[in-house]
Design brief:
The protein is of the alpha/beta class. The chain is 37% helix and 16% strand. It has helices at 6-17, 32-38, 52-66, 78-81, 84-93, 139-159, 192-207, 224-236, 258-261, 266-269, 288-294, 325-332, 342-352, 363-373, 386-394, 414-422, 435-440, 464-470, 506-516, 532-545, 551-561; strands spanning 22-25, 45-48, 70-74, 97-103, 130-133, 164-169, 188-190, 212-216, 239-242, 276-280, 300-304, 317-321, 379-382, 401-403, 429-434, 453-459, 499-503, 524-529. The protein has a six-stranded parallel beta sheet, sandwiched between helices. It has a six-stranded parallel beta sheet with strand order 7-12-11-10-8-9, sandwiched between helices.
Amino acid sequence: MYTNLKNVQVVISLLKQHNISKVVISPGSRNVPFVHSIEQDDFFTCYSFVDERSAAFFALGLSESSGESVVLTCTSSTATANYLPAIKEAFTSKCNLIALTFDRDYRKLYKMEDQMINQVEMYREYCLSSINIPIIKEKDDLWYATSQINEAFLTQLHIKNGPIQVNVQVDDFGDFSCNELPKYRKVNYVNEEDFFKYQDGFKNKLSQFNRILVLCGQDMSNDNDMIKYLELFQEKYSSVVSYDDFSIARSSKFIKTLSITESMHIEDFEQYAPDLVITIGGHIWSFIKYKLRHVSDNFEHWNISKYAETKDAFNSLTYYFNFESKIFFENIVNCNFISDKVYYIQWENRVNNVVFPRMYYSNFYAIKRLLEVIPENSLLHMSILNSIRISNFVGTPYLTECYANLGTDGIDGCLSTFLGQSADISKFSFLIIGDLSSLYDYGGFQYLQQPNQRIMIINNNVGSEFYNNFGSYIDTVDDFIGARHNSALKGITEFNNVDYLSCRNEKEFEDQILKFVSSNEKPIVFEVFTDASKDTSILQEYYKLNLHSDFNIKMKKVLKKLKIIK
């Protein structure tokens, strides 16, 4: 019989799946749901030590002699503090101790709760990782707990030796009504050696999936070999390689799914959902990741990265390949499979039918026109968020190097980042930036000095993203949320050796755009004044035109709920 507390169940399930069996136990109440569950499970070998300090050193000795990870567990409060000397020793000697500390609901801390101290990261300096597992009340809590525990165990078992802390909140003791321990999702670690050893098994596993979606994240390299291997992968397996303008690989043979996923209802997206997602490269900007989270129960996720990052982005990660993604694809395509391309054709047909609204003077118009005339082999930096969104919808020229501060997705610092990137290169360098982003980073303009530098400022006198999201129902959006203003950026030319252009309508824009993209003795700032309402309208029109509000899809979902169809 096991505890009915889900967060404790997750700990036990993943200890078993990661083959961690030795547990040193000190008496107490807060850890009873864990202790009584494992003492009846033949998988675990349990040792009893009343004093927590001695228990921790005993666990240290077990780990040193066996080379295995050893769990030590006790009740809450000062009992946990007694583990510190042994954990410090384990950190120095690189022994794998797991301090499984049990805690009360964090919301009761400093609220006169008995036997409660701040246990979170209490051994911070001496642990590879310290994770805090909440009481599981909803699906996202389970996602968080599963991901955090897997990542902590993988770090210790496969990446770096040393102690870790897993702090588990227990609000009550529950009961022991669970006859069979649920098997929670394990993340499997695969290094390069294991991959080569079992690659035939991975090839066969891949061949059994009918709808593989490869998401290419951000990367500043341009590797033709990687593109070749991904193209071969798409040919041989039932897959779609999805990219955006910041991706690790760009090819006309890949599918730019982001052009329509932001428009799709989840019922529509379900028709295009994968049964396996493979993520490579850095940060993935595309909004497809949010759609995938709605259908995460229906697919596996494999992440391939040379960095020690599991990236359980969708609550479905099952394999983490810890090596260069190029090694994976170079070898996995050496097979005799040939795809039927059904999944590829499905996505291709949808993306090829993207419809653009009738263009009128707006931020959409200005960005689209710039990308139509931008010189080949330019550098293009885009600020958060409409600059990125619209540029990707339109599509940048293939040989353009595209960048954005995607990791933090913040509007501050875009200008300075661009100026740093373009300070010592001779190629044309363009920045598309909004007015608020420019005002945030105003001091950076002092480094606008190179004649190849070009900045297009879209000035609609408000934070456009806030206006898009809230302008239709928050009457005061202009006051503080969108920070409406009446500023123009022309003043930068007064202290910089800069040429300044501006426009307020389509004719003026067309009169200036070719000068903006041509050679010049000075850097150029082109301030494009637009109307926020029109900017929002044309974006919403794009969404509406590409929203397949299919009655049959909606009816199918209703019938499934009524159990009339499967």
